[in-house]
Amino acid sequence: MADTDVVVVGAGLAGLVATAELADAGKRVVLLEQEPEASFGGQAWWSFGGLFLVDSPEQRRLRVRDSLELARQDWFGTAGFDRDEDHWPRRWAEAYLQFAAGEKRAWLRQQGVGFFPVVGWAERGGYTATGHGNSVPRFHIVWGTGPGLVEPFARRVRAAVERGLVELRFRHRVDELVVTDGAVTGVRGGVLEPSDVARGEASSRTQVGDFEIAAQAVVVTSGGIGGNHDLVRQNWPARLGPAPKRLLSGVPAHVDGRMLMATAAAGAHLINGDRMWHYTEGIANHSPVWDRHGIRILPGPSSLWLDATGTRLPVPLFPGFDTLGTLAHIGRTGHEHTWFVATQKIVEKEFALSGSEQNPDLTGKDVKLLLNRVKAGVAGPVQAFLDRGEDFVVARTLPELVAGMNRITGGEPELDLATVEAEVVCRDRAIGNEFGKDLQVTAIRGARRYLGDKLIRVAPPHRLLDPDAGPLIAVRLNLLTRKTLGGLETDLSGRVLRPGGAVFPGLYAAGEVAGFGGGGMHGYRSLEGTFLGGCLFSGRTAGRALAGEL
Predict the structure, then answer these.
(1) Quick one: which of 230, 372, 388, 450 has the most CB atoms within 10 Å?
(2) Angle at 549 between CA 545 and CA 550, to 5 degrees
(3) Looking at 181-311, which runs of residues are DSSP E strands?
(4) How far apart, in whole angstroms, are the C-alpha atoms of residue 339 and residue 303?
């Protein structure tokens, strides 16, 4: 006899959505989470809350012309699907595009989710029309950021707890799936000692008991590997250069890949493990919550991007254009850090920080505080990094700036003032001409034709050495772990497959552990705003399909 209808493993966004859908269908669910209740909602709570939507009212109000056809062109040009195991990822990508261009926004609005009216333009690409990148702005920020997206699904789950349909069990770490006659019939694992740590902080791994739960089906929604640097390096692909020795963590330590490995060990098919999404604009958090806690700068396009030797990055590796293309280039330089060189005016307008806690105006739905984004001056969270961040240098002159950059790195490698000065001066000459061949300058001017960028995202073009735009600011940029793009292979119902393509009875998966659908619906690269959306869509799909199956 089953103890419950369904066990859901992982109380992140995908797990909450799947649980809510199952409970709404009247199914009994036990939701297991190895972390304390303080971490309810998982990684999504920490996010900036960006969602990929196609031809939305927000886009149309800003005169952005988008379509399903254009989004499909961008997605598949970015994904680069080229493997036999990309069959289901391709189908998930198509299904997700239909969702993003169709009922996604209306469904979220029914949950009470609202959107900031200015649509962001992430992953601008810079190649041809059929290559990587978003042709138009599609990054819709949830009003309330990550917590605002988590809240309606957490509310639905807690309401189901009150109805007696859902049981929440925190500090329950699943170690293995129970397989009976080739089908998954439950889970077993260890009960961890109680912990009162705050959200995101490392919790104790001391085991105080065991458990086993029988169920008609199990849904795995346990996330990726971004907090496990050993596993990240183990899966690091040669195309991105050598595996980095120094990494910052964009996710808490409990994002460890443990359940991913346990599910594969039970006989599930794990594909595209070498596909991953890490950022190149990481800065060490001045007030870390977890070990090696990094924050990503969400840059506008104007900062001068230099490698560790002071040489400018090649076209089209401008800020915000091609994340993995930049990562691969950095890997070939022989050094793991790069530099932004900017002015006070650029930082005021263009430096945003990823994360709900770094955006108190949007997270707190504070309209008065939000108005500061269009005013002169550096935003409070960014100013805190200027004052306290170990990766920042502020100086009045270029020689002082370069000296400060060398102090940060200890001269490894030693930046040559003449090299940096040549890059800055040549770039400034391009600013002084309405024409010219500097494609970054052309891109800056083009970006300001979009009202959203002109209002709050892209500074008016100016010389870096213009004293009225100063002081000069340099930022050491570090590699920052974030997302697993591969995962458990699933069909369009979220059913996990075995090697060879047969359905693994009783086993479903959703969210990052499933590559956000199919075992990697992004292919090699993401268009951004698609991770949270992938959790929503795959969690909803698995929950509804399983509810219909039971």
Answers:
(1) 450
(2) 125
(3) 183-192, 207-220, 248-249, 270-271, 276-284, 294-298, 304-307
(4) 9
Listing DSSP states for 67-99 in one string gives: -HHHHHHHHHHHH---SGGGHHHHHHHHHHHHH
Tokens of 140: 């819709």
Structure tokens at 127: 């190649």
Residue linked to tokens 């790069």 = 338
- What lies within 8 Å, CB to CB, of 186 at 6+ separation is 2, 3, 7, 177, 178, 212, 213, 214, 215, 218
Angstrom distance (rounded) from CA 491 to CA 345: 49
Task: Scan for tokens 């601008």, then name that residue.
Answer: 124
* Per-residue tens of pLDDT for the chain, all 550 residues: 789 999 999 999 999 999 999 999 999 999 999 999 999 999 999 999 999 999 999 999 999 999 999 999 999 999 999 999 999 999 999 999 999 999 999 999 999 999 999 999 999 999 999 999 999 999 999 999 999 999 999 999 999 999 999 999 999 999 999 999 999 999 999 999 999 999 999 999 999 999 999 999 999 999 999 999 999 999 999 999 999 999 999 999 999 999 999 999 999 999 999 999 999 999 999 999 999 999 999 999 999 999 999 999 999 999 999 999 999 999 999 999 999 999 999 999 999 999 999 999 999 999 888 888 877 789 999 999 999 999 999 999 999 999 999 999 999 999 999 999 999 999 999 998 889 999 999 999 999 999 999 999 999 999 999 999 999 999 999 999 999 999 999 999 999 999 999 999 999 999 999 999 999 999 999 999 999 999 999 999 999 999 999 9
Cβ neighbour number for residue 112 with a 10 Å cutoff = 12
**End-to-end CA gap in the chain:** 15
Asked if 433 and 461 count as a contact pair (C-beta separation under 8 A), the reply is: no
Q: Which residue pairs, CB below 8 angstroms and at least 24 apart, start in 418-426?
A: 419/309, 419/310, 419/311, 420/306, 420/310, 420/341, 423/304, 423/306, 423/310, 423/311, 423/312, 424/304, 424/341, 424/398, 424/464, 424/465, 425/465
Alpha-carbon span 258 to 173, nearest angstrom: 10
C-alpha dihedral (37, 43, 49, 54), degrees to nearest 10: -120
Tokens 């280039």 belong to 329
- What's phi and psi for 64, nearest 5 deg? -95, 125
